[in-house]
Amino acid sequence: xxxxxxxxxxxxxxxxxxxxxxxxxxxxxxxxxxxxxxxxxxxxxxxxxxxxxxxxxxxxxxxxxxxxxxxxxxxxxxxxxxxxxxxxxxxxxxxxxxxxxxxxxxxxxxxxxxxxxxxxxxxxxxxxxxxxxxxxxxxxxxxxxxxxxxxxxxxxx
Length: 157
What we know:
Elements: H1 28-31, H2 34-37, H3 54-67, E1 71-76, H4 84-98, H5 107-110, H6 118-131, E2 136-141
Parallel strand pairs: 1-2
C-alpha cells in the first residue's frame, strides 16, 4: 500500500438527467404544475410503476426550472448507491452543480470513505445549504433502485 487514500471517482453521468424519448406523451396537468415549479411544496414525490414517465416528467421540470434560472441538482440512483459513502459522494457532487461551495470544506472526503461518518458530513452539507441565498431544487431519480439505502439513517435531528 502506498499510503494514499483510495480514490472513488464521481460518475458524471449520474449528475444529469437522461435524454429519454424524443416524443414523450403530453401530460398537460403535470407539465404545467406551477405549484411544483414555483416551489410551493418543499418536497414532491413522483411515484408510479416503471415505464409511466416519472424520469421524463422530472427531466421536463428540470429543464423548465433551469430556463427560469433556478439552480438544480440531479442525481440518478442505482443499486450501488446502497453504499452510504458512495451515495453521499454523488449527492454532494450533484449539489455542487447547483452551488459550488456546498461540501467545499469536505471535498477531500469526496474521494475517501467519509472517515468522520455520514452524520457529520450531512451536518456540514446542511450548514452549507443554509448559507445559499437562492433556491436549489434537488432531483433524486430512480430511488427505487437503491432499496438498501435507508434515508432515515441520514436524518440529522
